[in-house]
Design a protein that fits this description.
- It is a single chain.
- This protein is globular.
- The longest helix is centred in the middle third of the chain and has 22 residues, at 210-231.
- The strands form two sheets. Strands 4-5-6-7-8-9-10-11 form an eight-stranded parallel β-barrel, surrounded by five helices. It has a two-stranded antiparallel ribbon with strand order 1-2.
- By secondary structure, the protein is an alpha/beta fold.
- The chain has helices at residues 6-13, 29-46, 50-66, 75-82, 100-114, 125-130, 135-149, 166-171, 173-189, 210-231, 254-271, 306-320, 340-343, 353-361, 367-380, 391-398, 407-411, 415-435, 442-448; strands spanning 17-20, 23-26, 69-71, 91-95, 120-124, 153-163, 194-198, 239-243, 280-283, 325-327, 348-351.
- It folds into two domains: 6-66, no CATH class; 70-359 and 416-448, Alpha-Beta Barrel (TIM Barrel).
- A hairpin with a 2-residue loop joins strand 1 (17-20) and strand 2.
């Protein structure tokens, strides 16, 4: 249920939580896990009253902290990977676009079953808009899922592709950079202690030298990194990622990596000797976000350049102490490809559309709801349709934008439906965790990552 008043909310937590000053003590963990957490997260997401949403989110995060669930930075682990103290696995970064509370439970069940340590829960700047999930809501949903499943430990929540839009930047650079900075501020306040800065959209391949091509990219990335260092909470070093090649563009080169890093580090030094730089580098090796849909709605096979990816990862570690290269747009690759990523030293892999496809193509998703979403897209996203698109191609490319308008319907599907789809997702997560070799890495994370309990100001309504 959704709590409708503050008095109802207070009665709901009575005997389960104890609230004093800026903290929460859990009195009855069983009741919190079995029932209260469901009511809190649905209030946090769907209450029409802002004060109730804020109160529920605060209660979720502080109750989580009380039982050992904390937002954390993956920085220390990535530094160990850069020193080659830790190797042999690729960290999965999973974009969650639909029913985040239930989706996250599937991830965590698979992670606990496999004793997986590093998993990044992420959402991109564009996804925040079209899935209608602001950072504070996203963090609350992932934390609530951890409480629900019995997970304990750090939660690595990541801002993916906090991207400068090239067209908007050309029209008004200051306004577009401010929009990204405002989002970074909002995200860090919400417990996003891992942020991928994406200024690769500003790479200008018409320039005569590689350094000139990358100049705007690395200089703005350095500016945003410095801002992040100013905003990060005491005791937390936010893991920052950079990007040298826009996904879907030309393949990256080691020369571009070095041009970016040398210029970036030079600009950082101007801000102060102690400013810590990025921990990883996103590159382009032949993929596109979501894959390329064919006329029948299937996805074209990708020719991913594993040799280039390996060279970029090695150069990133040896020359600059980074964890390695990051592969985007990989979830629609054939299943047999995934074990190659840890074999060649890929630090991180981003996965999104493949899970979206599981949801939309599931026999457990009610056909009536699927049709409602598709009918909505045909009307409201018609301007995004190319003349050559078949219905299947158009819907494949736009159906990600159905998650926001139908968010309430998806979250409120019958329990048995959510459970069945959740099991399909969990099975795929378990498969990928095995392929990426992250099973039995929980102890490695415990060794390097020491989460900090960052104070959260109690909402005025409480």
């Amino acid at each position: 249920m959704i709590f409708e008043t503050m008095d109802q909310l207070r009665r709901g937590w009575e005997g389960i939580l104890d609230i004093s000053q800026n903290d929460v003590r859990v009195l009855d963990e069983s009741r919190l896990q079995k029932s209260l957490i469901d009511d809190l997260i649905f209030t946090a997401v769907f209450s029409p009253q802002q004060e109730l949403r804020e109160a529920a989110r605060w209660l979720i995060r502080r109750a989580g902290a009380a039982i050992g669930i904390l937002s954390a930075s993956i920085q220390a682990l990535y530094e160990a990977m850069g020193r080659k103290e830790v190797k042999g696995f690729t960290v999965p970064a999973i974009n969650i676009r639909a029913f985040t509370y239930h989706f996250s439970q599937a991830i965590l069940r698979a992670a606990m079953k496999g004793k997986v340590g590093p998993v990044l829960f992420e959402i991109a700047r564009s996804e925040i808009d079209y899935t209608q999930q602001r950072p504070a809501e996203y963090t609350a949903a992932v934390t609530a899922a951890a409480i629900k499943t019995g997970y304990r430990g750090p939660l690595f929540i990541q801002g993916d592709h906090f991207q400068v839009n090239a067209k908007k930047y050309t029209a008004d650079p200051a306004k577009e950079v401010k929009a990204v900075k405002d989002l970074i501020w909002e995200a860090i306040d919400a417990g996003f202690y891992n942020i991928d800065v994406d200024t690769s959209t500003l790479v200008d391949l018409s320039k005569p030298t590689v350094k000139e091509q990358q100049h705007l990219n690395y200089s703005l990335a350095a500016e945003l990194t410095t801002m992040i260092r100013d905003l990060e909470p005491a005791g937390v070093t936010v893991s920052v990622g950079g990007e040298i090649g826009e996904v879907g563009g030309k393949n990256s080169t080691v020369e571009e990596l070095r041009a970016f890093m040398d210029g970036y580090l030079e600009d950082l030094r101007k801000s102060g000797e102690s400013v810590k730089g990025i921990s990883k580098m996103s590159v382009q090796t032949g993929t596109t976000h979501g894959g390329v849909p064919l006329a029948d709605g299937t996805v074209a096979k990708v020719k991913l350049d594993f040799e280039t990816l390996e060279k970029l990862s090695e150069a990133a570690r040896v020359d600059y102490g980074l964890s390695g290269a990051v592969q985007h747009g990989a979830s629609t690759l054939p299943n047999e490809a995934f074990d190659r990523f840890p074999a060649i030293g890929t630090a991180e892999i981003h996965l999104a559309t493949g899970f979206q496809n599981i949801i939309y193509d599931s026999s457990n998703l009610p056909e009536v709801l699927r049709k409602q979403i598709y009918d909505y897209l045909k009307i409201n996203m018609a301007t995004e349709r190319k003349e050559t698109d078949t219905d299947e191609q158009f819907l494949y490319k736009t159906r990600k934008k159905g998650f926001g308008p139908f968010k309430k319907e998806l979250w409120h599907l019958p329990v048995e439906t959510l459970t069945a789809i959740g099991q399909e997702l969990e099975n795929q997560f378990s498969f990928l965790f095995t392929k990426l070799n992250v099973n039995n890495t929980a102890d490695i994370v415990r060794k390097y990552v020491k989460p900090v309990d960052v104070p959260l100001k109690r909402p005025a309504a409480l």
